[in-house]
Amino acid sequence: MEQKLLQQLKEKLEREKEEIERLLSSFAERDKDLPENWRTKFPQFGKHTSEQDENSDEVEEYTNLLPVEYRLELKLLDIERALSKIKKGKNYGICERCGKKIEEERLKIIPEAKFCSECSKKK
Ligand SMILES: [Zn+2]
Questions:
Q1: In this structure, which residues have their CB less than 5 angstroms from ion ligand 1?
Q2: Is 40 helix (H, G, I), strand (E, B) or coil?
Q3: Rounded CA gap, 13 and 80, in Å?
Q4: 44 — pLDDT class (breaks 50, 70, 90)
């Protein structure tokens, strides 16, 4: 892969990483023992006036956020993994299933891709 393209992909990954961390930290926090794990914070919509108020809106919001958090967290892990491959100077852009090069066109769209387009279709 050309150095120039690699540099562009690296910058794109770093921007996405920042963006996802910013999004995640708006409604979740990092696990103290396991920093790559994020936990959705239970939202607090104002003060509760009574015990029963343990508010269905909050429960609903929390339930909606969990899958979002999960998706972002997985994507963040893929991005960090791709960045560490670039840093080590090996294996970036190589399909983790078949060992062939991942198409550059594909990497331009999904720089954190772990599989070539053929292998990702098989999944
Ligand atoms: Zn493959």
A1: 95, 97-98, 116, 119
A2: strand
A3: 8
A4: confident
CA of 37 to the centre of ligand 1 (A): 28
pTM, 2 dp: 0.84
Helix 56-88 / helix 3-27 crossing angle, nearest 10 deg: 160
Place of tokens 């053929």: 118
Ligand 1 centroid–CA 47 distance in Å is: 53
**Residue 118 Cα to ligand 1 middle (Å):** 6
pLDDT at residue 47, as a whole number: 66
- Residue 82: CB atoms within 10 A of its CB come to 24
User: Residue 71: what residue type?
Assistant: R
Measured in Å, residue 54 CA sits from the centre of ligand 1 at 49
- Cβ within 8 Å of residue 6, ≥6 positions away: 86, 92, 93
- Tell me the C-alpha distance between 41 and 47, whole Å: 16
How many beta carbons lie within 10 A of that of residue 114, not counting itself?
A: 16
